[in-house]
Amino acid sequence: MDIVGLVKKSYADYGTMLWDSWYTMITEELQYTWTLTYGLVFGTLVIIVYWWRQSRKKRLEREALLLAQMESKRTFESPQRFRKRDRIMFYGRRIIRKVRSYSRPGKKRRPVMRFSKNLLESNEPPAEYLEVASDGNDRVPPDAMYMLQSIRIFGHFDTPVFLKLCKHTEVIDLMSGESLIKVGDPDDSMYIVQTGLVTVYLNNPDGSVIILKVVRPGEYVTSLLSFIDVLLGNTSQYKTITARATERSQVIRLPMSAFKQVFDEYPDLLVRVVQVIMVRLQRVTITALHNCLGLSTEHIQQCSSQRKKIQLKTEIKPLSPGHRRVPSDQVQSHSLVELRPDMLNDLSESPPGARPPFVPSEPIEHTILKTAVVDRLLQELGLNESERGTIEKNVLIKEVTQGTILIQQGVLEDVVLIFVISGGLWLAQIPQKEMKEFDKMPDNIEAHSITIHPGDLVGGLAVLTGESSLYTIKAKYNSRVALLNKEVVYGIMRRRPAVVLDIAKSVVKRLSPLVRQCDFALDWNFIESGRAVYRQAEDSDCTYIVLNGRLRSVVTHESSKKEIIGEFGKGDLVGIIEMIAEKPRTTTVMAVRDSELAKLPEGLFNAIKIKYPVVVTQLIRLLSHRFLGSVQSRPLSTSSALNSLPFETNQQSQHRYSTVAILPASDDVPLVAFVYELYHSLSAIGPTVRLNMDTVSAALGPKFADKSHEYRLTSWLSQQEDHHNITLLQCNNALDPWTQRCLRQADVILIVALGDGSPTIGKLEKEIDRLAIRTAKELVLLHSDSHEAHPTDTMSWLNMRSWVSRHHHIQCPNGMLSRRNPGKVFAYYTKQLSTEPYIHSDFSRLARWLTGNSVGVVLGGGGARGAAHVGMVKAILDAGIPIDMVGGVSIGAFMGALWCMEKNITTMTQKAREWCKKMANWGPQLLDLTYPITSMFKGRHFNQTIRSTFGDICIEDLWIPYFTLTTDISASCARVHTHGSTWRYVRSSMSLSGYMPPLCDPKDGHLLLDGGYVNNLPADVMRAQGATHIIAIDVGSQDDTDLTDYGDDLNGFWLLYKRWNPFTSPVKVPDLPDIQSRLAYVSCVRQLEVCIGAFYR
């Protein structure tokens, strides 16, 4: 024991020493063990990564091999993920990111940057789509070109006639300030400015002078009404018009007497020229005064109320051709009916309740009266006795009561020549908005009408032009009139062409001096496809009225990037705001197709405005409509939502078309049946005409496509546009003159193809870019009605046709694709056209799109409440409302895509129920949880549920046009998706922040989230897509606003105690999900209010 104690006493720290040794030994062993463990783990990771990369490489090689095998079997590439231009954008952005990461700037970087930026402009239309064609023809001398352009208003004279006219021309050299036209000079010549500038002035009675217009090289100074006077031998003088050279100028003078010699040799040309002048008067001068400036009958001068006597000649002598009109005092005659000169004055002053006299009290034999009327008509029309039998046989003497309408404004069938025997008529030009109330407005008719007295001949303007009347002619009193049908007049014109001058004189003598002044200033311009009406930064000294055709407005930014601002159709005013503001042109306006314009100079506008203040009111109304339309049709989102739209979308709000050319993509397309079906649907919307080569040949003759008949064909087609809402031009299967005319005349070209056929481009399609490069083109794919599955491979069709701006999927009725015999097709559709078209059919949807009457449905976001969208769609269909376009956000994107894919409410309901059941299954969702760095869920299960519903279908393959909206957090803007993978963009639009990770866009790698963050009800985007009538369905919740005021800080345990303790007063404090939901839609509250009050709702 002592030894042990001694040892312990000697080595008191022995245990400590042993402990230190043990600790040191254990530490060394563990360090070795951890080093070994780390090495093994690292080696394992290296092996796993190596194996994964090798496996991925082999898988990519197998996919590449499979793709190569598919390409060897097919002659074209059919990507299933996204379109060709999207691939270009993807790789272009990769290039630009690489370039930006290059730290040393230099000469090599700038070209690559420019190349990358050009590569990324795939959303822009082709360059030719926005560029103006080159002007002029260098092989034609300038003076001859100006002559051609000016004489073109006389109906495209043939070359021999043109050369005869050129022999009479005279070149005048003017110094600056030298007068070309003075007051008192004879108005018997046409002046064409070759070089320099000539200013036309209007001299007022008070001595003031107004600049009427500035005539530039290639333009002319003349009045076509004076042309009529010269042909009649009544040459007038300039009374208020003068013209001086602004700078040294050279002017070509063409005397109007030269046309008399031409007409003696070519009598048929007289009828054509006079008709062209009357058409110009009706469609240019009067249309500009009435529709654009608000004037009604100010252009017609009131004749004297002194009644003329209807006389019976006792001796009829042959009328000299040079002196057709014989004064009444030189003809031996006696009065058949003596009428008091002041009878009309007595009638006009009679009380409203008094009944005006009908005819004189003494009886008149019908034969004697008819003979007197025929004599007077022969005198008025300048006819000899050889035409007496024709007039007696066809003239109709009619007694009409007060208020009877003889000719209705705008009705072609009512056109007739009227001679007033007794009583009186009202000639009125009623504004379009008051047309329906014309019968109910006897008190206000005085403001729009003048009185036609006995002995007057009216209706000649509509008879000469062959168009509907611009006026309504109504009986002012109980009257007796003589009616001569227009077909009878046309027969007389064919036998005696000179009769057109007498009818034209009856029209011209009623025109006021205002029309003469306008005729000097107004120009009638023909603009070929691709030519510029005016260019950006030019002086704005005039405005243009589109008579027919289509114009496109393009702005060029400082970066040389061009952007489409809009398009203009028939009846639109172009450049009016810039002219009034006296600012340079802000855009370049070009002709999309051959167009006809009326040019209204600023000087003429100011002169009319001073004399008729009502023009200012009309102008304010037009500009207000223009401003409100531009503001309300502009997307309401403040973000750059439309920057990601394809180039055609920015112009869809003005897509109403007048002429539609229908072109077959191949010979096996049932084009005749397609045109009949589309015509059937369009006829239910408004007047529609269907034209093919046979119908035009029957109307104009088999040689209608010859150069000599070009003006006649152009005028006839323009008349068809005026008389119908839409004109269908059926092309042939070959590129013949008729097909070329259809392509030049069309506002839009429909390329019709079979959906199950090969998407290769046919020979006829290849010629479209050459003939109609600036015309909008849309692809129509036909599918059998028994085709239950959705369309496929639409991308291949679109990728091979970069010029197509839109596509339509059409399910054809039973038998349409198999019915080939023309006789059977005609017999079938003859019966079919008498029935009402099915409003929900695809042809009706296409018809509404072409006429600008599409119905769009917008489905808003709202989480689980979005299931109500199914019921709303069913309610819309039950109400008989068609659905032509669909757009959605969040849950609305899902439901909208489901309807566009199925087009069947039963199948839509079933698939929506199945998806909701999958989302209610908590097991897979729990497995989808992840560490919440970016989101709570991985998104894999959510992706599987959506993909299993839609499959790999693309937006282009949906039956109905569709778009969805997402929030691009990479670019901080909204994105509108109209093509690409359906399930991906539906999933992106449903990705709430914090719950689901953002989806990477396969096009550019941008991160996309729920579109409800920027626009939860995109009715404005639907408007930009082209829908006219929009039904917006909002399923968002009404959040509580009476929340508890808990002070400056909040204790979560206190809040938990309040919620779980039933004996305390409840508090209303939003939780984290509620705050997240409120933040998601707080930016859309104001936009929702604007959508509710929008004009298109």
Structural notes for this entry:
Residues 153-280, 526-608 form the Cyclic nucleotide-binding domain. It holds the Pfam family NTE_Ploop. The N and C termini lie far apart (109 Å). A hairpin with a 4-residue loop joins strand 35 (962-968) and strand 36. Among the domains are: 21-72; 142-265, Sandwich (Jelly Rolls); 368-436 and 447-518, Jelly Rolls, CATH 2.60.120; 528-612, Jelly Rolls; 659-850, 3-Layer(aba) Sandwich (Rossmann fold); 855-896 and 919-1033, 3-Layer(aba) Sandwich (Cytosolic phospholipase A2 catalytic domain), CATH 3.40.1090.10. With 1097 residues, the chain is an alpha+beta fold. Helix 21 runs parallel beside helix 28, helix 31 runs antiparallel to helix 35 and helix 32 (905-919) runs antiparallel to helix 34. The chain is elongated, with a radius of gyration of 40 Å. The chain has 39 helices and 39 strands. The strands form nine sheets. Strands 33, 34, 35, 36, 37, 38 and 39 form a seven-stranded mixed β-sheet that branches. The longest helix is centred in the N-terminal third of the chain and has 60 residues, at 14-73.
